[in-house]
Design a protein that fits this description.
14% strand, NADH Oxidase, globular, three-stranded antiparallel β-sheet, 42% helix, alpha+beta
């Protein structure tokens, strides 16, 4: 979506959830882990980005008896491929998952069988932006060979 008013509404609702998360719901360890990244409840990028994409997962069909299998896995793989395509096109994004995300279903008038999975602001990198230096684990800590 590119509608400025809708992006503003999403930002306001997301910041409300994030403010409550950081002030009340977030465990101390979580906040300590986020501190070096400078993450907080304010999310101006939701309004500043030229476009927002909200990915919804269908938990089942329009009737509850219509089963959908491997929803989280399938949507997660699709989002990963979409993010790779965004970066290949010379654009940037980051995953934003305010908790809870029910406000997105309400604002975007999505049916009950859909739940917001991730919110992706998309655009060009902001001037002076930096990607945090996060060390990868050594291969022997993440790979088990048989």
């Amino acid at each position: 979506m590119t509608d400025g008013e809708l992006k503003r509404k999403i930002r306001v609702a997301a910041e409300e959830e994030e403010r409550a998360f950081y002030a009340v719901r977030a465990p101390a360890g979580w906040l300590a882990d986020l501190a070096p990244l400078g993450t907080e409840w304010r999310k101006p990028f939701l309004e500043e980005a030229p476009a927002l994409v909200v990915v919804f997962a269908q938990r089942h069909g329009t009737r509850a008896t219509e089963k959908h299998y491997y929803v989280a896995e399938s949507v997660g793989i699709a989002v990963g491929m979409f993010i790779a395509a965004i970066h290949q096109a010379g654009l940037v994004t980051l995953t934003h998952t305010p908790s809870p995300m029910g406000f997105l279903s309400a604002l975007l008038r999505r049916p009950d069988n859909e739940r917001a999975f991730v919110l992706l602001p998309i655009g060009l990198p902001a001037r002076g932006c930096r990607v945090p230096a996060i060390e990868r684990k050594p291969l022997d800590q993440v790979l088990v060979e048989f």
